[in-house]
């Protein structure tokens, strides 16, 4: 309510120089005093706003910046978070491992293995840059906030603790009703449709071939339809499974 | 022998009331003020809604070291809390709570006695302010003195109006002569008396002498522990006494719409409690008056109003006769 009024007031100020900006005074003497009493009395009859915290847990909004959780399966030790951190409060140690070739005769691959991931919450200023910058969705805000310690050194939390906090991260908010489809889902759906179309085509060709050999029309049609449906379902399931696997376990 | 026992019982009852009622008012202030500000107030001490908060405060005060500043006037400094507190005990003795002889000690010149002794209570603050050898305390003490001068007059004038109406200066006599239409008749005097009494108690919004945010509790700056607690207690005892006196003088004390026999003391307590609530309410609602506004209110508003009330009382009195 106050925002739309402000530009208007600023507009008027250069014109009016006399200090007549005070609110109009009531004619009845003492009405201001009565108003003050009424305000306090009305407040007394309402529920107080006190949050009885240790007795009652606060209802925090889901995006509360309580603590940073680490989804270490997603971490590739790219070090972006540690480098972007303005406080330099993220400590990462890692080593390289060679992975034997996937297929015989292939090349050996090297892989980063996380040894230590720690955040010093006595330095952290909860800016969230590490979470923004992580390209692999390994860092998340959790609303958990009760991790006070009596010694400042104990505020450096290691990967196991950070992984535990991952369980308190709420599910991402649902998309808006008219939102664009997420890229992963769109790609998976396209692949599934393509596969289904192919299989349907193959089934139809097979049916045509069967018709040509003199089989019953109805039977062939039914068979073709069933085959197409099954193929489409299977393809869609596979694609969805792949997407889920990618987002969850692709290290 | 029965006479002695009677006196002992009466004094004991007054003493118990003197110890209990201020604490009740203090606890009510904790809770009422909290809820008026959208808070809950004390919730832990004693288990149920922090009923024992003031007991806990008292224990804390008793544990603290009793410090007397090196430059202070030692004897006066130590005596001041008693001077601030005891007068209210004496006043309480003279306040009738029920019809007949339900009074600690019926004093013939009750109004004089009560007002004079209440004035002594303020001396405690002035003694504390002077004896502390502290700038803030001295400022507080001087402001207390100025406030006493300004507000004692309207208070006495308003009380005089009631004395005129009743034709007696005895508190018991005033109540015996009371009729219900005295309330609208003396309403202006009542408001003046109550307001001036608030100022004399240095309660917000008239707490310039103790203004904690600018002169650090004024005369009480140097006090700690039990002596400080006594000053606080005297403030709440003062509320009880002021509300009781206003009830007796202007609201008819034990007179009530019904239950005249036996329940009179209940009416007195009820009216006193309502007034005490108003005292708290005013504290929560209004900001502190500036020193010059304080003086202006007393000399240009309250005293003329009190004089007008006396004139009205006189006119009506003549007309009735």
Fold and architecture overview:
The complex is a heterodimer of chains A (251) and B (321). By secondary structure, chain A is an alpha+beta fold. Among the domains of chain A are: 67-166, Alpha-Beta Plaits, CATH 3.30.70.3270; 183-249. In chain A, 43% of the residues lie in helices and 13% in strands. Chain A has a 3-stranded antiparallel beta sheet. In chain A, helix 6 (183-212) packs antiparallel against helix 7 (217-249). The two termini of chain A are 50 Å apart. In chain A, 12% of the residues are buried. Residues 1-16 and 239-251 of chain A have low confidence and may be disordered. Chain B has 321 residues and is an all-alpha fold. Chain B has one domain (68-320). Chain B is built from 12 helices and no strands. In chain B, helix 1 packs parallel to helix 11, helix 3 (74-94) packs parallel to helix 10 (225-250) and helix 10 (225-250) crosses helix 11 (264-285). Chain B starts with a helix and ends with a helix.
What are the defining features of this structure?
heterodimer, A: about 250 residues, alpha+beta, three-stranded antiparallel β-sheet, two-stranded antiparallel sheet, about 45% helix, disordered N terminus, B: about 325 residues, mainly alpha, about 70% helix
Short overview:
The complex is a heterodimer of chains A (about 250) and B (about 325). With about 250 residues, chain A is an alpha+beta fold. Chain A is built from seven helices and five strands, in the order H-H-E-H-E-E-H-E-E-H-H-H.
Q: How is the largest sheet of chain A built, in terms of strand order?
A: 2-3-5
Following the backbone from N to C, one meets helices and strands of chain B in this order, namely: HHHHHHHHHHHH
What is the highest CATH level, the class of the domain at 67-166 in chain A? Alpha Beta
What is the count of β-strands of chain B?
Answer: 0
Average pLDDT of chain A works out at 79
Number of domains of chain B: 1
> If you compute it from the alpha carbons, what radius of gyration of chain B comes out, rounded to the nearest whole angstrom?
20 Å
Could you describe the largest sheet of chain B, including whether it forms a barrel? Answer: none
Separate helix tally of chain A: 7
What is the rounded distance between the termini of chain A? 50 Å
Largest interface: A-B, 13 and 14 residues
Please report the number of helical segments of chain B.
12
């Amino acid at each position: 309510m106050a925002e739309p009024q402000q530009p208007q007031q600023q507009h008027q100020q250069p014109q009016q120089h006399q200090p007549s900006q005070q609110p109009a005074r009531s004619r009845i003497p003492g009405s201001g005093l009565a108003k003050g009493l009424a305000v306090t009395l009305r407040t007394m009859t309402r529920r107080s706003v006190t949050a009885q915290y240790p007795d009652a847990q606060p209802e925090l909004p889901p995006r509360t910046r309580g603590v940073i959780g680490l989804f270490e399966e997603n971490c590739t030790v790219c070090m972006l978070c540690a480098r972007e951190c303005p406080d330099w409060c993220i400590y990462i140690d890692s080593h390289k491992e060679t992975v034997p070739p996937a297929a015989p005769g292939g090349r050996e691959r090297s892989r980063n293995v996380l040894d230590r991931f720690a955040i010093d919450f006595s330095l952290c200023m909860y800016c969230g840059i590490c979470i923004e910058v992580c390209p692999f969705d390994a860092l998340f805000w959790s609303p958990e906030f009760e991790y006070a310690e009596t010694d400042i050194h104990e505020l450096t939390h290691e990967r196991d603790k950070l992984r535990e906090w991952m369980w308190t991260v709420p599910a991402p908010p649902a998309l808006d009703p008219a939102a664009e489809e997420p890229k992963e889902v769109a790609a998976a759906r396209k692949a599934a449709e393509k596969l289904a179309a192919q299989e349907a085509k193959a089934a139809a060709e097979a049916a045509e071939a069967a018709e040509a050999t003199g089989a019953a029309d109805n039977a062939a049609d039914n068979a073709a339809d069933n085959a197409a449906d099954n193929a489409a379902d299977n393809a869609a399931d596979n694609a969805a499974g792949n997407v889920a696997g990618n987002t969850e376990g692709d290290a | 022998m029965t006479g002695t026992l009677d006196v002992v019982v009466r004094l004991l009852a007054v003493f118990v009331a003197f110890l209990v009622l201020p604490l009740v008012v203090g606890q009510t202030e904790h809770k009422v003020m909290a809820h008026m500000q959208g808070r809950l107030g004390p919730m832990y001490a004693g288990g149920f809604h922090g009923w024992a908060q003031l007991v806990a405060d008292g224990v804390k005060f008793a544990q603290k070291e009793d410090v007397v500043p090196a430059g202070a006037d030692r004897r006066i400094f130590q005596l001041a809390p008693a001077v601030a507190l005891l007068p209210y005990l004496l006043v309480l003795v003279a306040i009738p709570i029920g019809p007949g002889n339900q009074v600690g000690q019926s004093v013939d010149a009750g109004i004089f006695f009560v007002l004079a002794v209440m004035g002594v209570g303020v001396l405690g603050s002035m003694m504390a302010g002077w004896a502390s050898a502290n700038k803030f305390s001295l400022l507080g003490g001087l402001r207390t003195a100025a406030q006493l001068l300004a507000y004692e007059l309207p208070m006495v004038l308003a009380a005089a109006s009631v004395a005129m109406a009743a034709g007696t200066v005895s508190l018991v006599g005033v109540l015996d002569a009371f009729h219900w239409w005295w309330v609208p008749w003396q309403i202006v005097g009542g408001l003046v008396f109550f307001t001036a009494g608030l100022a004399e108690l240095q309660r917000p919004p008239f707490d310039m002498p103790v203004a904690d945010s600018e002169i650090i509790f004024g005369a009480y700056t140097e006090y700690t522990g039990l002596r400080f607690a006594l000053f606080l207690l005297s403030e709440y005892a003062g509320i009880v006494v002021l509300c009781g006196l206003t009830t007796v003088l202007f609201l008819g004390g034990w007179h009530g719409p019904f239950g005249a026999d036996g329940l009179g003391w209940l009416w007195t307590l009820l009216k006193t409690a309502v007034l005490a609530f108003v005292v708290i309410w005013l504290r929560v609602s209004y900001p502190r008056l500036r020193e010059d506004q304080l003086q202006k209110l007393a000399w240009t508003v309250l005293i003329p109003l009190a004089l007008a009330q006396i004139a009205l009382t006189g006119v009506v009195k003549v007309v009735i006769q």
